[in-house]
Amino acid sequence: MLRVGLTGGIGSGKSTIAGIFMVMGIPIYDADSRAKKIMNENEALKQSLIEEFGPEVYTPAGLNRSFLAQIVFSNPERLQVLNHLVHPHTIQDAETWMHQQESPYAIKEAALIFESGAQSHLDIVIGVTAPLALRIKRTMHRDKTTREAVMERMSRQINDVIKMRLCDYVIVNDDRSPVIPQVLRIHAELIKRAQAV
Ligand code: ADP
User: Fold this and answer.
1) Strands across the sheet containing 105-109
2) CB under 8 Å to 83, separation ≥6 — which residues?
């Protein structure tokens, strides 16, 4: 079974493209939602987060995301500490999940693949790209947020050009190039590659 990563900057359309693979029967691991689950359920990680960021990280209802976001989003060093604590758990969790899948290939969808070193646990990485202005517009619309807030989040991700160069396949999701034929082409190649393994 091939372990495939699907990545791209915020607003590139990763989740939308993941949805197309999903309707073709390909299992999708959503790193974002799995990370939230792990941060709420893994006792060792919860303890490390409390030690590092204080008891306010958890409320009786679970992870206090706004408290944590407030700390890390204004401080890149604290963000790095958070990522160093969480990423090994999500990488391990994705690895376990991959082994449980029975399709020719399975996809891990994550904004941060190269940033977290997760590519060494993947056989192939697909990138999704779109022009910056379109990514900003899409994200503002989706999250009902401001241009400044989107730009802030983008500044924490590695440059899209560099990211796409690191990918084995690139899907252009620019509202001009039809995406379904691009997905179908990659799907056919991945099936062929999986059979050759
Ligand atoms: P990401 O997961 O990369 O942050 P999303 O897949 O959530 O991006 O896409 C961001 C927004 O743009 C969503 O509201 C989505 O519906 C929209 N979008 C993405 N790609 C397309 C597309 N090809 N056509 C129309 N809307 C799109």
Assistant:
1) 28-30, 105-109, 2-7, 124-129, 169-172
2) 112, 115, 116
pTM for the structure as a whole = 0.93
Rounded to 5 degrees, φ, ψ at 103 are -85, 165
Going from N- to C-terminal start, the domains of the chain cover 2-27+101-196
Give the orientation angle of helix 179-196 with respect to helix 14-23, to 10 degrees: 60
User: H-type helices in the chain, by residue range?
Assistant: 14-23, 31-41, 43-53, 65-72, 76-100, 132-143, 147-154, 160-165, 179-196
Cβ neighbours for 165, distance < 8 A, ≥ 6 positions apart: none
Say which residue, 108 or 154, is predicted with more confidence. Answer: 108
Q: pLDDT for 7-30, tens place per residue? A: 999 999 999 999 999 999 999 999
List pLDDT tens digits, range 54-84.
Answer: 999 999 999 999 999 899 888 889 999 999 9
**Residue with tokens 């993941």, as numbered in its chain:** 18
Nearest CA to ligand 1 atom 22: 175
Q: Residue 177 in contact with residue 17, Cβ under 8 Å?
A: no
Backbone angles phi, psi at 119, to 5 degrees: -65, -25
Which ligand 1 atom lies nearest to the CA of residue 179? 23
Asked if residue 156 has pLDDT above 80, the reply is no
The domain defined by 2-27+101-196 folds into: Rossmann fold (3.40.50)
> Is the distance from the beta carbon of residue 138 to the nearest atom of ligand 1 less than 6 Å?
yes
